Structure formats: C-alpha cells, structure tokens
Amino acid sequence: MTNDPMRQADVARRLANMAKAPRCGARTRTGRPCRQAALRGRARCRMHGGAKGSGGPPGDRNGNFKHGLFTRESKRLRSAARGKIREIRRFLKEL
Asked: 3-state DSSP call for residue 23?
C-alpha cells in the first residue's frame, strides 16, 4: 500500500457514499436501531434478513399451523363465557 493522494480521494468519496446509504430498519437486542447499511433495494442489512435466501421458507412450508385459539367457534364460546361472568357479577352485586 502506498500513500497515493489519488487513492485517498477515492477512499474518502466511497466512505462519504457509504455514510449516505439508508440504514437497516431493524432493532438490535438492546432496542436501538441497527447501524448497518441496508442492502440495495431492501430495508434490512445482511444480518437482519436482507440477504438472499434469508428468512423462512415460502408458502405452506413456513409452519403456518392453526392452533384453534382464534377460530370463530372458540371466539364465540369465549364471548359467551365472558357474558355469563358479567351476568353473574351483576347478580352478586345486587345481593
């Protein structure tokens, strides 16, 4: 490596361009925003899912399993149970 002034200008220009790059939109474990530059055309850096192939598999292979907690029937049953509890509390308050 030589101390070529022309090369130093090129390095300074590249560093200035990197500083202008959009930042990753993810939050780190400390809750602060990630300081890495986002990948070109993406909102995340390579460590937070911007890299090609990162993330879960597409479609049905992504483990989109239903557990039944939010089905219409279970929502209706919970709503009815809450209504009965309210009714019992009102009855006990009147006594």
From this structure: strand
